[in-house]
Amino acid sequence: MPSEEKLWPSRLFALVYAAGAVLMGGYALWHYLMGDYGQITLPALLTLLLAGATLLRLSHHPQRYLSAYLVLISAYLLIAVEVAQLEGGAGLWLGLPPVLAFLVLPPGSAILLNVLLGGCGWCCWSARSRPASWPWPTWC
Question: Can you tell me where the transmembrane regions are (predicted)?
Fold first, then answer.
């Protein structure tokens, strides 16, 4: 059994993941109450994913670090879907996944993830603004 000093950060992360799951569930409920039924699926599935990440973080399984990746996947997915629908003020939300990556991953992994996904996101967003006569194929 791990000591209390080593168990506290795991419980703290689990508490934060559980709060994220509650917020995501509230977001899905908000879409339901607003009558935007087409947007409920992703937040509802991500609520289950975050609940699974919380339980994985609380377990003493050797791969409990995977819960951080589940949280990052859910953040990147939700931001990617929601930013495409926002007309103004999207810049604030684009900073959330890189900051979250630095909070839950070691610095080397966070930098690598942000460089790779930042470049991919930049290519995809610039592909939308290209004219129809662009000579290269748009693969994003």
Answer: 12-34, 40-58, 65-86, 98-125
